[in-house]
Amino acid sequence: MDNPDNYQNPTYLVDSDAELIRKKAENLVKDPNNKNKSAINLFYFVRDRIKYNPYNIVLDIESFKATVTLQRGYGFCVSKAILLAALARSIGLPTRVRFADIINHQL
């Protein structure tokens, strides 16, 4: 089994220790003691306020950082997932990112 500490610590991409990430998460969370409500608020922020844009994907590693996505205000599924993980970790919610291979059955 994975070490749960891996889901709480900042990484290069999940830069949950960045001031921008911490301040945004604190601003979004109304009751820090209610972890479920906090997670829901963070999810809705990333879903609704960070625009989904699959047409402007930059594949350099720097563009995947949570702080870059937050500043930019848009991203695609991978960058938005990284941002959500960073926001959650910044308020003490253990979070990991999982990815899957997508098959386009329309081709």
What features would you highlight for this structure?
107 residues; mainly alpha; two-stranded parallel ribbon; 4% strand
Description:
This protein has a two-stranded parallel ribbon. It has helices spanning 19-28, 35-49, 66-72, 77-90; strands at 51-52, 74-75. The protein is globular, with a radius of gyration of 14 Å. The chain is mainly alpha-helical. The protein has 4 helices and 2 strands, in the order H-H-E-H-E-H. Helix 1 (19-28) packs across helix 4 (77-90), helix 2 (35-49) packs antiparallel against helix 4 and helix 3 (66-72) crosses helix 4 (77-90). The longest helix has 15 residues, at 35-49.
- What best-fitting shape do the alpha-carbon axes yield? globular
Number of extended strands: 2
Distance between the termini: 37 Å
Largest sheet: 2 strands, parallel
Order of the strands making up the biggest sheet = 1-2
Helical content band: 40-55%
Rg calculated over all Cα atoms: 14 Å
Secondary structural class: mainly alpha
- Spans of at least 5 consecutive residues whose pLDDT stays below 50 are none
Strand content: under 5%
Number of helices: 4
The secondary-structure element order is HHEHEH
Give the rounded overall mean pLDDT: 93
Work out the oligomeric state of the chains in this entry.
single chain
